[in-house]
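queue> holo job accepted (glycine)
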Amino acid sequence: MKILLLGSGGRECAIAWKISQSPRLEHLYVAPGNAAQYGTNVALNPMDFDAVKEFVDANAIDMIVVGPENPLVEGIYDYFADHSVKVIGPSKKAAQLEGSKEFAKEFMFRHHIPTARFMSVTAETLEEGYHFLESLNAPYVLKADGLAAGKGVIILDSLADAKDTLSDMLEGMFGNASATVVIEEFLSGIECSVFVMTDGEDYKLLPVAKDYKRVGEGDTGLNTGGMGSVSPVPFADDKFMQKVVNHIVEPTLKGLKEENLEYRGFIFLGLINVDGDPMVIEYNCRMGDPETEVVMPRLKSDLVDLLEGVADQTLGLKKIEFDERAAVAVMLTSAGYPGDYEKGKVITGLDGIGDVLPFHAGTKLDAEGRVLTNGGRVIALVAYGEDIADAAAKAKAATALVDFEGKYLRNDIANDLLR
Ligand code: AMP
Ligand code: GLY
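queue> job finished
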């Protein structure tokens, strides 16, 4: 099987690592990729579907695996609707679960899936939005309806600030993405990420993970694309997961079917544990980053075989097995991130980290074959351990060995799950 993987981050690196181990694989191409070398990099823009098709035809690609959400929300699945190549992902309509917060909330209400109360507001209904805010208790959650590169959610402590921000958002704070704003009731609890693979009929759950979004230790400071992750998540025990399956996963899949929303890919459930009950914070139509960096290492089964099941609607016949060990990922980032940062710093020490996995995020190779930084999130170091504490200690030890000018990391990844 010849596979084209779209994307260039740590998530795609972890997927490439896993795909590259498959006996089913003939050749892996990654577009555009980074300095990791589990496949052949191709200089293709994943959003340029005509160019992707040209490459697919010229290289007899059998399957496209899509890492990030944008090509899915823009309809790459539908673009290849003739199924000349298998595309792992939802159809454009189904990708609205991520592409429109309003669509996602209405879908959940239609199918009685537990989620926060909400109201969706436009410039014409601003006054009603104010009234809804007045009916809620602080803090106030405002979400841009459309894709806003992970920055479209704002949480405010005072009602006055929430009203001002609502009006700013509707006036174009996130461009067209915030022409509609979803106001939500605030939910309090610990979050976790549940990943479902589905072929539209059957499904498999992947290992549960938790990510760390804030830049500072103790979950402080600005939001980032993710500073680290851990799997498994102790509070997501059998009892909790049974509720996730009964109240969220199965109603979601049933809802997709009932509404003829074609889906052959990953569903990412961003969940919050509210006093033992899972509620949905968000849907994403792809794998999470940096959760994938700990989920793939814990998947024992052949990913390519599972992906074929997804594409061919034979997932129900496949077996899925997990590694019992824990995995922890610590992201090395560039000084200044998520604000401005420099690129092009030489990364050293990658040869000395033993069996710790270096999943490249923002890296590139220079002409001499050196690995350079090329982004805010540079590389995730992922360690296995007998338990979370062991995996966290091993990942942390590796972070001392890999270096580049301006290296930054959080030393407390997974600590909240140890208490
Ligand atoms: P989202 O992009 O929808 O995942 O939101 C980003 C982050 O905002 C989430 O990971 C949560 O930490 C937080 N968040 C979103 N919605 C809520 C909510 N209703 N209650 C509390 N926190 C929320
Ligand atoms: N880790 C959160 C996300 O991928 O959206």
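queue> The first helix runs from residue 10 to 19.
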